[in-house]
Amino acid sequence: MNIFFGEEASAQLSILTNSYDKFFLLTDENVYEIYSSMIASLLPEKEINKIILPSGEQSKNIENVVLIWDKLIESKAGRDSLLINFGGGTISDIGGFAASCYKRGIDFVNIPTTLLAMVDASIGGKNAINFKNYKNQIGLFSEPKSIIINPEFLKTLNKRDIYSGMAEIMKYAFIADESLMDLDIDNYLDFIKEAATIKDEIVNMDMKETGLRKILNFGHTIGHALESYYMERDNCLTHGEAVALGIYASLYLSKKYCGLDDNWIMFYDFWFRGVYDYITLSDLDVEKVFSYLSYDKKNKGGKPKFVLISAPEKPQIDVEVRDEDIKDAILLLRGLL
User: Fold this and answer.
1) Measured distance CA(191)–CA(149) in Å, rounded
2) Are 49 and 71 in contact (CB under 8 A)?
3) 8 CB contacts (<8 Å, ≥6 apart)?
4) Whole-structure pTM value
5) How does pLDDT run across 3-47, given as a tens digit for each residue?
6) Residue 217 and residue 120: Cα distance in Å, rounded?
7) Which residues, in sequence order, are CB contacts of 68 under 8 Å at separation 6+?
8) How many angstroms from the chain centroid is the CA of residue 16?
9) Alpha-carbon gap, residue 184 to 331, rounded angstroms
10) Distance between CA atoms of 227 and 77, rounded to whole angstroms?
11) What CA–CA distance (Å, rounded) separates 234 from 228?
12) What are the beta bridge partners of residue 306?
């Protein structure tokens, strides 16, 4: 996969301008408000057709996919058109999905503007939308032509958005590179390239998630269930916050099923409380959250499969966990904050 950073990223976008007949830019209202002048300068000599969606995870639905297709058809977009997904993970997910289905696939480029998208969501070719409040239920694998990463965009993010991305970097620390555990709010910029490279290397070895790529789901099984549960409520969790909680639950299960040393749970507890002390889960319904696991894409034979670790950098895939232990892990989270 072609990932470009910093000045190299800007040069790559200029190269792309000579390869396509029409350009479409997909973004959301918040990003457009902040970066409208930059958007206008992305392709100064070309006409850019803009598609602007409402902000937030709730926009990742089939209605907005139809809206994108309508815009492409109205503007007579052909196979020689390029869709530029400019925003966070919601935009790269829905944009990649819409582009990959339109006329059996047109090229798209991801320009992530959030930390989470830079280290995870924009990389890997997974494109999906939510359906009936279930996370990423409809989707496909299709790689972007390029991923253009410029950390300058992160200067406009609030701390909650930064914390959301930090959870995914910590995931890489547990499954692939222990050195990333030095991560904190003051040094997260130093870890972006390493985290993005880790994901890219794993995806290149297992694009369709038949084996190795499964380790990227560490923290996501319960994390996605929590995210789906809170989509129905006013106090939504961001994807990264849900993953941070999912990692905590996975470490608890890793001790029980894989012999993970207690010290790693203590380490993560200290790190987690230092970052996510603003999250409240007092209204968490254990049975309801558990029910969302039956829709998890990784299920086999109707049973959720977990990624756990026996030690940092030693992930174990397809671990079957007893229902009562899953519920205990969710209950642990309710008492955490």
Assistant:
1) 13
2) yes
3) none
4) 0.93
5) 988 777 677 777 877 889 999 999 999 999 999 888 887 777 788
6) 11
7) 26, 51, 94, 95, 98, 102
8) 25
9) 27
10) 35
11) 12
12) 319
